[in-house]
Amino acid sequence: MNQPVEKPVALVTGGAQGIGLGVAQQLLSEGWRVAIADVNEAAGAALHTTLAQFGESFSFVPCDVAQEIEVERCVAAALDRFGQLNGLVNNAGIANPYSGPVEDLALADWNRWIGTNLTGYFLMVKHAVPHLRAAQGAIVNIASVRALQSEPDSEAYAASKGGVVALTHALAISLGPAVRVNCISPGWIDVSALKHPPQEAKLSPIDHAQHPVGRVGQPQDIAEMTVFLLSARAGFITGQTIVIDGGMGRKMIYEE
After folding, report:
1. Helix/strand/coil (H, E, C) string of 47-93?
2. Which of 8, 24, 82, 104 is deepest in the core (most CB within 10 A)?
């Protein structure tokens, strides 16, 4: 008698709102079970309404990814609930890129950006990788186009995201062939509808038109690629950073 095949399990950090929530929704809709980790417990509590149609296929785990003891507990909770781990999506981070003039940037603030946006990714991998290795799983790290290009006064954020890109290819070499590791660098993604509480999008026609594809990005644009990279369909892809920015990074802009 054939045994039923268990649905794969992913752990998504920063998954209670924004891009992370979009990724969690896409995974659930494609048959994954998902442990959602987030420091925002109010947003986590709201998931029981937002994701109600997915029943018992998801769980919420409060977690500050910059704290190793919380990361260790988070991974353990995901395993206790679902029994395995096939995918890790490192997404949690401080979203605000602006830290002010570098000469005024306090070391504590610098460390806070690096601790959450980069060290948090390392800690999650450290504690998840034995289980991912056992499942021949995959990791997707969410970075940013700011790893490749910058606006003024964003040194801490840019450094953290650049670190994620480098961490990705280092991990791909260290963990292969058992675990594949890839990175997505999103551009301008409108996450207003997936914030807690939801917000009204404040986008102008110019905002859309400046993108070569004709629109600002949506969380599903990132979610679709994330699910693909976690799947066996991407079995020959590792160590890569994929930019999803509507073509903005390739557009020459001249001031008149």
Report:
1. HHHHCHHHHHHEEEEECCCCCHHHHHHHHHHHHHHHCCCCEEEECCC
2. 24
Residue 67 tokens read as: 């704290």
In a domain, 72, yes or no: yes
pLDDT tens per residue, range 90-140:
999 999 999 999 999 999 999 999 999 999 999 999 999 999 999 999 999
What contacts 24+ positions apart, CB below 8 Å, involve 67-71?
68/123, 68/127, 71/120, 71/123, 71/124, 71/126, 71/127
Has residue 148 got a pLDDT over 80? yes
Looking at the predicted structure, is the pLDDT value of residue 199 above 90?
no
Contact present, 145 and 249 (Cβ < 8 Å): yes
Are the beta carbons of 122 and 92 closer than 8 angstroms? no
Structural domain contains residue 3: no
Whether 141 maps to a domain, the answer reads yes
Backbone angles phi, psi at 12, to 5 degrees: -115, 115
Helical (H) or strand (E) element with 182: strand 180-186
Mean pLDDT within 58-62: 98
Q: Where in the sequence numbering do the catalytic residues fall?
A: 157
Segments forming the whole domain that contains residue 36: 9-248
Token code pair at residue 207: 């905002």
Q: What is the Cα 208 distance to its own chain's centre? A: 23
The CATH number given to whatever domain includes residue 107 is 3.40.50.720
Whole-structure pTM value: 0.96
Q: Give how many domains the chain has, as a whole number.
A: 1
